[in-house]
From TrEMBL:
It comes from Selaginella moellendorffii (Spikemoss). Coiled coil: none annotated. The lineage of its organism: Eukaryota, Viridiplantae, Streptophyta, Embryophyta, Tracheophyta. GO terms for biological process: double-strand break repair via nonhomologous end joining; interstrand cross-link repair. This is Metallo-beta-lactamase domain-containing protein. InterPro entries: Metallo-B-lactamas, RibonucZ/Hydroxyglut_hydro. SUPFAM superfamilies: Metallo-hydrolase/oxidoreductase. One of its GO terms (molecular function) is damaged DNA binding.
Length: 204
């Protein structure tokens, strides 16, 4: 099983840059009192989709990116050096190639596998959103707690059968994308939309 330390990874990434180094002793700052609650996993220093000035700081070296949409990666640039960016392989490539973030600061994680990061168990599952979009399932053994951060997620009944998600039924908290939870938003199933588009193209 893979075990990673965001601090060790950050130190190596910093040292491989322009002579700067994150080595030596290290102490974290406290999270600001006004830090957005939905961008932090309780009981950890994990920051999710928070890379701007309000969220990125010396209080964390572990940053998680759910997917490659501007409102989630805002703050990432070639100068990024605040910490490690944990994400899917597709998202990682986009962060490096499209935004110019140094590859040393990007950690691409496999899907549907338990990965130990800073003594927590992290699993990535498909969010059924854009390519590379994931949900983060985080278990914090020290506190016996479990959390789900959906990012931007498009629910599908198949998710009810996902073994990893089923293991998190009864999680201590779910950070849920509620953009379209209002009943006024009624959309056809993705399969129906794809079928309609394909049939329309065939008739052209």
């Amino acid at each position: 099983m893979v075990a990673l330390s965001s601090l060790d990874l950050w130190r190596r990434a910093s040292a491989s840059g322009d002579g700067a180094s994150g080595g030596g002793g290290h102490s974290y700052s406290r999270f600001p009192s006004d830090f957005p609650f939905h961008k932090r996993i309780p009981g950890t220093r994990f920051v999710v989709d928070g890379f701007g000035a309000q969220c990125a700081g010396d209080w964390s070296r572990a940053y998680f990116l759910t997917h490659f949409h501007g409102d989630h990666y805002a703050g990432l640039a070639p100068s990024w050096d605040k910490g490690m960016i944990f994400c899917s392989q597709v998202t990682g490539r986009l962060v490096v190639e499209a935004l110019g973030v140094r590859r040393d600061f990007v950690v691409e994680l496999a899907m549907n596998s338990v990965i130990w990061i800073d003594e927590c168990q992290v699993t990535l599952v498909d969010a059924n959103h854009c390519p590379g979009a994931v949900q983060f399932l985080v278990e914090v053994p020290e506190h016996g707690t479990r959390f789900v951060h959906t990012g931007d997620m498009r629910f599908t009944p198949v998710m009810k059968e996902d073994a990893s998600l089923c293991n998190f039924v009864g999680a201590d908290a779910v950070f849920l994308d509620t953009t379209y939870c209002n009943p006024k938003f009624v959309f056809p199933a993705q399969e129906e939309s794809i079928s309609y588009i394909a049939e329309t193209i065939e008739r052209m």
